[in-house]
Specification:
This protein is of the alpha/beta class and 288 residues long. The chain has a single domain, classed as Vaccinia Virus protein VP39 (Rossmann fold), CATH 3.40.50. The protein contains 8 helices and 8 strands; from the N terminus they run αββαβαββαβααβαβα. An 8-stranded mixed beta sheet has the order 1-8-7-2-3-5-4-6, with helices on both faces. Helix 6 crosses helix 7. The protein is globular, with a radius of gyration of 21 Å.
């Protein structure tokens, strides 16, 4: 049996390597180089009408040119019977998500980013929606950059659905977090330059993989599943330049648009529920 250590006593195996590149194959590196070369030849288009919420499904974002959006930040519906959900079968739901994120891929600039906020569901059985959406976007052709754990509460009493109380019979984990999965199109590096607005302190905090942000109250906003403005603000500040256009294909009550405007960006949104569009527009008017 061969010795797993060299003469210096150090392991010959790459486990624990400080560089993530050690876990990328030469084939992947060559493929990324080829993609990068083709990306440089692509034309990045401009967005026409900005600061608009379209009352339609984002299955067809015909208003947007190919390769025009630098950043998408969104939280899709879960199809679990909330007011913001459509009553779809599981097959219909994933077919819809596939169509929408195929459109997101089309309109995203080479080097542009997509952030999806999603929570896992259920216990009998557990439904890892973060995995399902990761598989969906990778199969469409996106490159995964990583994920942020959004910790919504530090308290152990976040909810009381703990299953069998103080018994090994069936104790249940109580989620106090959601996932934000992050992707790029064709290249990890942006193909355009601009003015970054993030401070040193915010950059250091935003590049950590766990964010502690208090959740938004649904009753306060008038939408069953709002995320706090601070969540999209961090991604917008980290991944986009000043004056760029931020897309949300499920814009709901307009939180992504509010975050964009607060950071001197513009927005484009899509929403099928006109009541939520009215809430979004009122929220935007209140900030001007």
């Amino acid at each position: 049996m061969s010795n797993s250590k060299d003469k210096s006593g150090r392991s010959q195996f790459p486990f624990g390597s400080g560089s993530r590149r050690g876990f990328v194959s030469n084939f992947q590196i060559q493929d990324l180089k080829k993609i990068s070369e083709s990306v440089e030849k692509k034309v990045i288009n401009q967005v026409g009408q900005i600061d608009t919420i379209y009352h339609k499904s984002s299955e067809n974002m015909s208003e947007l040119e190919d390769n025009s959006i630098p950043l998408t930040v969104t939280s899709p519906p879960y199809n679990i019977g909330k007011e913001s959900d459509e009553d779809l079968t599981n097959l219909q739901y994933w077919d819809l998500m596939n169509k929408i994120f195929k459109e997101v891929l089309r309109v995203t600039q080479p080097g542009g980013r997509v952030v999806i906020n999603i929570a896992n569901l259920g216990r009998k059985p557990y439904q890892p929606l973060n995995k399902h959406f990761t598989d969906l976007l990778i199969n469409l052709g996106f490159l995964m950059r990583g994920e942020v754990i959004w910790q919504k509460s530090k308290g152990a009493n976040a909810n009381f659905a703990w299953g069998s109380w103080m018994s090994a019979s069936n104790p249940v984990l109580r989620d106090i977090h959601e996932y934000c999965i992050i992707f790029s199109k064709e290249s990890f590096k942006r193909q355009v330059s601009g003015e970054s607005t993030i401070s040193k302190e915010n950059f250091m905090e935003s590049t950590l993989s766990i964010w502690n942000i208090l959740p938004e109250k649904a009753k306060k906003i008038g939408h069953p599943a709002p995320f706090p403005v601070e969540l999209p603000k961090r991604f917008i500040n980290l991944y986009s330049f000043k004056d760029e256009v931020i897309l949300d294909p499920f814009i709901g009550s307009g939180t992504t648009a509010l975050a964009a405007k607060s950071l001197d960006r513009n927005y484009i949104g899509y929403e099928i529920n006109n009541d939520y569009i009215q809430i979004a527009n009122m929220r935007l008017e209140d900030t001007t």
